[in-house]
Amino acid sequence: MAEIKILIEGYAREKSGVWYASPATVLINDNGLNILVDPGANKKLLLEALEKEGLKPENIDIVFLTHYHLDHILNIRLFPDKDIYDGNTINSDDKIVEYSGNIPNTNVQVIPTPGHAHEHCSLLVGTKKGKIVIAGDVFWWKDDETQKTDKESLMKHKDPYVKDKEALTESRKKLLEIADYIIPGHGKMFKIEK
Ligand SMILES: [Zn+2]
Ligand SMILES: [Zn+2]
User: Fold this and answer.
1) Which of 15, 165, 168, 190 gets the highest tally of CB atoms within 10 A of its CB?
2) C-alpha of 165 from chain center
């Protein structure tokens, strides 16, 4: 079974008209591979968190991006020689290889979840604790918002940056059906009440 660890809890706060934001950065270890999901934008926090795990950037095998918002991406600069995965392509320099279903050679399932961004994908990871979904910005909160996690509030929660509201609603519904726990893009992990 895969092991999963939240290296950095996602945050998003505004101070004097400037935003400070970095998403949940998650480390998955499956089938001997270290998969880093959404390396985020806080270089210092990421290097410290990796060090705590006894890891250096070169020990990461796969960098996966849920979508193309820069706060989720900037730290790919720390992994210049690694393959970068999105929901359906593997990018090594100028080489682009398509894939579908699981991240190759792992049990980690890629789930298309458009709405917040058209290319958005989430990951479903089977763990001892249950099915954990890394949901990126399908669900996210500003630091000063109360995180209400009953199903109705989750479905209604406003995303000021939504690109396609109908698609986002469908994506949320899909994730709530399959997940035992959800790691949001910004905010705390929460349990889905069945
Ligand atoms: Zn986003
Ligand atoms: Zn975000």
Assistant:
1) 168
2) 20
Q: What is the DSSP letter of 166?
A: H
CATH number of the structural domain spanning residue 178:
3.60.15.10
How many domains does the chain divide into? 1
The pLDDT of residue 117 is 98
Distance from Cα 116 to the centre of ligand 1, integer Å: 7
Provide the token pair at 120.
């958005």
C-beta of residue 185 within 8 angstroms of C-beta of residue 139: yes
Q: Residues 62-120: pLDDT tens digits?
A: 999 999 999 999 999 999 999 999 999 999 999 999 999 999 999 999 999 999 999 99
Nearest-ligand number for the alpha carbon of 116: 1
Q: How far is the CA of 24 from the centre of ligand 2 (A)?
A: 8
